[in-house]
Specification:
Length: 80
Amino acid sequence: MHIIDKDRLYEVLLVRRQLEFSFNGKNYTLIMDSEGAKSSFTLGRVYDIPEKFAEWGELTNHAKIENHFFREMIPTLDFQ
């Protein structure tokens, strides 16, 4: 699934809660975890301990994959 920007990715996560993608031959997961009205996010390689982000803005502003900002990679990734 091709997603063009971080806003659309957030909309998809509200429905699916978990997405997977590959980058440089490595598989990654992005998970949205909700507790009441508050959501947190985890991002990391499959079978590794993921990095946790307290909110969507923190993830999109600080998350990196192999020295690339995740927010800049979104349009190039194929999410599953």
